[in-house]
């Protein structure tokens, strides 16, 4: 069993944070005013200049120290420890606090009342026009 530690590859950390944030290399390149190929090279580099790291951190919304200390295992541990319900299917179910049929009947009754008021208004107009002749 080896106790060797993982290398502190800053480029890989930048890449993973960018992916987790849902950003493309093209976006980072545009913000840095460099080419996409340059961003690719940065993400392949084991070390990154502190000033450049701070610029990238601003783009990714993460402080430079956060990039240096980023641990994918820690992210997954946090996610795993904050989701209490392991049945993810229930996250997508919708259980209204009202009866949809009752709401439909209410809307139908309201529509009926509006129609009756409109009909009565039209009758009044017709009666008014007849009385003017």
From TrEMBL:
**Keywords associated with the record:** Coiled coil
SUPFAM superfamilies linked: lambda repressor-like DNA-binding domains
Superkingdom of this entry's organism? Answer: Bacteria
User: Coiled-coil segments, which residues?
Assistant: 104-132
Q: Give the matching CDD domains.
A: HTH_XRE
Instruction: Indicate the segments forming the HTH cro/C1-type domain, all copies.
Output: 14-67
> What name does this protein carry?
Transcriptional regulator
Q: Which organism is it from?
A: Dyadobacter endophyticus
